[in-house]
Amino acid sequence: MCSLALFAACCNVPGAPETKNKKNIRLVSYNVGAFHKSGHSTISMIADMLGEMQADVVGIQEVDSCTTRTGKVDQLDSLCTYLGGWCGKYGDAMPYKGGKYGVSVLAKPEYTVLATDVLHLPKGTGNEPRAVAVVEYEDFVFASTHIDFGEANIPHAEYLLSQFK
């Protein structure tokens, strides 16, 4: 349901309501693995990749904020700076190694943010907490999450559907 609303607002979907802004928007979602899966920071490499893709709005998962694991760096802030002033919203899922761990949404500076929110998904037994970063722009809403791969994925999907009806 959330994806349908997102694409109806952004694309020429048959039967979708007309939008005042017909500009194509390139949406990207990427699990960055704390920008650190290779043992060193991959922020600049991923920023370059997003530039090559001509991304407009990006959902990123597995983002550290000021953890000791990644040198106390605010990864979202670093990525936004590297991309030339993009604006981001961080959704912390849990405390982690002296900081936080979660998901984010970021966009080029020309996209005006109207509202932001962070939803915390129901936690399953033995699973780590999960969150959703939600950003409302002038013509669409974009949400980024990292749904659990185990038994909690169905309750997570049901919860999200109930929030975005």
Question: What would you say this structure looks like, in words?
Answer:
Helix 2 packs across helix 3 (75-82). Helix content is 23%, strand content 32%. The model is unreliable at 1-14 (pLDDT under 50). By secondary structure, the protein is of the alpha+beta class. It contains four helices and seven strands. Strand 6 and strand 7 form a beta hairpin. The chain is globular. The strands form two sheets. Strands 1-2-4-3 form a four-stranded mixed sheet, with helices on one face. Strands 5-6-7 form a three-stranded antiparallel sheet.
List the helices and strands and how they pair.
Layout: H1 2-10, E1 27-31, H2 43-52, E2 57-65, H3 75-82, E3 87-96, E4 99-107, E5 113-120, E6 131-137, E7 141-145, H4 153-163
Parallel strand pairs: 1-2
Antiparallel strand pairs: 2-4, 3-4, 5-6, 6-7
Nearest-angstrom radius of gyration? Answer: 16 Å
Low-pLDDT runs: 1-14
How many DSSP-defined strands? Answer: 7
How far apart the termini lie comes to 7 Å
Number of helices: 4
Structural class from helices and strands? Answer: alpha+beta
Strand content: 25-35%
Topology as a string of helices (H) and strands (E): HEHEHEEEEEH
Name the descriptors.
disordered N terminus, 3-stranded antiparallel β-sheet, 4-stranded mixed β-sheet, alpha+beta, 23% helix, globular
How would you concisely characterize the structure shown here?
The protein is of the alpha+beta class and 165 residues long. The chain has four helices and seven strands; from the N terminus they run H-E-H-E-H-E-E-E-E-E-H.
